[in-house]
Amino acid sequence: xxxxxxxxxxxxxFKGAPVELKCNYSYSGSPELFWYVQxxxxxxxxxxxxxxxxxxxxxxxxxxxGETSFHLKKPFAQExxxxxxxxxxxxxxxxxxxxxxxxxxxx
Amino acid sequence: xxxxxxxxxxQVLKTGQSMTLQCAQDMNHEYMSWYRQDPGMGLRLIHxxxxxxxxxxxxxxxxxxxxRSTTEDFPLRLLSAAPSxxxxxxxxxxxxxxxxxxxxxxxxxxxx
Lengths: 107, 112
What we know:
The complex is a heterodimer. Chain A is mainly β. Chain A is built from no helices and 11 strands. In chain B, the strands form 2 sheets. In chain B, strands 2, 4, 5, 6, 9, 10 and 11 form a 7-stranded mixed β-sheet that branches.
């Protein structure tokens, strides 16, 4: 079975502080992991995927197969990063999401 | 380019009524899916389709039916609405489950 766990429902940090959103997964095969973001009054959209190994809007995420984690990190948070973040796992035919973390960046 | 279009945006139903949420995409994507979004529960997969004529159940399929007669359309039917189906529903499409998913703007459904 595929399962994604995001342990933090809410995360609040100050502008300029580092941010880490946690994501753990369970899957017996070779997973593909994604981070999606939903800004206020906008559609859910892809932020990044582990295969591309790129940094988007200053965010990075490394797939750790040993710890079955795919944490999202940014060294210096900006106010425009405030949004809902979802970790997602693509298995054989399904794309499943975690519970989501609402990130608030305080000025 | 319209992308993924969901209708309606808002709907109020009485318990026991039926309705169909519409989803259409113009990107020639084979993979389409329906999710419901509830506070603290995240996005939960209801049903998905890997191509026209093929559908399968997701994590929370009970109370919902789908069909995929064309590549473009993937309607979600509520046969007998219940208050527990009050939620925001999202349709998504992609070339496959492993590729970037594009989402509709959502349908906010309230069952009273």
